[in-house]
Every structure is written in structure tokens, then in C-alpha cells.
Amino acid sequence: MPDATSLPPADREVARVDGVFYGDTGGTGNGSGMPVVLLHGFLFDQSMWRAQVAALSARGHRVITVDLPGFGASAVPEEPATMSTYSTAVAAIIDQLALPPVALVGYSMGGQVTLDTYAARPDLVARVVLVDTVAHTDLPEVAQGRRDLAARLEREGVRQYAEEFLPQLLRLDGASAATVSHARTMMHAADPVGAARALRARADRPDYGPVLDACPFPVLIVVGEHDPFDQGRFGAGMAERAPYGTLEVVAGVGHTPPLEAPDVFTGLLARFLGN
């Protein structure tokens, strides 16, 4: 189990459901905004959303951040994990808090958890935001690459891979030193077993394209202009598939707009949520 460095500041409630930790701003907002649930990406934790938590709670939203199973302070899931392992954990937190339908915001792996959550429990979700993620299944060679990486992380740990992965997550020539340090800290703290189980779950994930096709409410797709994984087309394709989809491209950043351009990203999110 990693230490609790990812846990929210003391001015937010910290709780857990079935070993999954989350932070909750509770009544710190004025109550006028839709509740927002923020889901982090692979090797990250809920602390990636610090800027968004502060800004959205100031705008009246109740904001919940989750350490997905196996990341941050949350317990590593049993093997084999599937995408429903993660989406069930998210749904359990929303149910525990008795929230009205939420805006579910997912970055990278968290975007796939978002789509899985909505597919399983549409009653919990009123808006979806997908950040630098994909809805399609992996090609066979990509899926095998995830499985091979899972085995490597179990053998070697995460630190060396984190250094290789970091330039794919951030534009290092544009990101601030504090942003790079924060990303590195999250990744170095990741549990290799939890990371490996997430990789295998993602390798076997279903196609979420049909989920987008049938989505009856607004969906915001956000991609970084220089995201090496998006290739300038996957986000656009998802926005076209969703009946009420909108694409926003954040200029000058890579795979991680919430960290690289927090003010721009949060502004897009606030406008999408209606404030």
C-alpha cells in the first residue's frame, strides 16, 4: 500500500468505501452547481485535480475526487481486475454519498472508467467529460504491450518506467517545474501491482463507442494539442459519435491539460457545467 500523500488537504473530508479512498468538498460550495466526480489517469492519483477542486468548489460545485483501486491510498484490487472493478468502486461512492446525477470527469484511464461507469449505471450520470482518452478497444499488439508492461512493472517496480513515460504525459519544454515534480511524485508512489492489474484490465476493456452513440446528454471531449496518444483524431472521432458531443483542443500542451494548463482546462469545464 502506498502512503497517503495523495489524500486531499485537511479542509476536505477524506473517506473510503470498500478500501477505495475519496475526497469530498462536502458543503464548501454554495450548493448551486451539479456535483462533479473527478477520475485520475494511469499512475496518477486524486491529487492531480487540486486546481480543479479549488476552482469548481468556489463556483458552487460539490467536488469528489477518487483514488481508483490500486492507486494513491486505495487498496489494490483482487486479480483479475476488470474495468468494472473500477467503475463499481466509483458507483459505490456516488451511492454512498446519495448524490443526484453527477458530472463525471475522466482523464486518460479515468475516461475509460467514466464510460464504463455510465454504461453500467446511467442513473448516476448527467454529464460526461473525457480528457485525452479513447473509447475504442486496443489493437491486439497494443493490448499485448499493456500485458508485457504489466509484467515488467511487477518485476522492476514503477520508477524507471515513470521516467520513460513522463515525456509522453507532459510537454517537458513547456510544463512548469512544479507540474513536472507533481507528476513524477504521483508516478513514483504508484503501487506496481495495482498498476499491473489496471493495465491488464485496460487491455481487455470493451468497446465504448456504442456508449457514446447512445449518450442522451452533453459530452465534452478535451484533448491536448500535442497529445502523442490522440494523434489528432481520436478525440474528434468521439465528439462526432456522441449526439451532443463537443471537442475542445487545448493549445500548447500534451496529454495532460488539467496539470499543464489548469486555468484553461478549468475554464472549459466550468463553461460546460454552466458557470
TrEMBL record:
Q: Do you know which Pfam families this protein is assigned to? A: Abhydrolase_6 (PF12697)
Where would I find the AB hydrolase-1 domain in this sequence? 36-265
Q: Name one GO molecular function term.
A: hydrolase activity
Q: Which domain of life is it from?
A: Bacteria
Ordered alphabetically, the record's keywords are: Hydrolase
What is the recorded name of this protein?
Alpha/beta hydrolase
The protein's organism comes out as: Streptomyces brasiliensis
Taxonomic lineage per UniProt?
Bacteria, Bacillati, Actinomycetota, Actinomycetes, Kitasatosporales
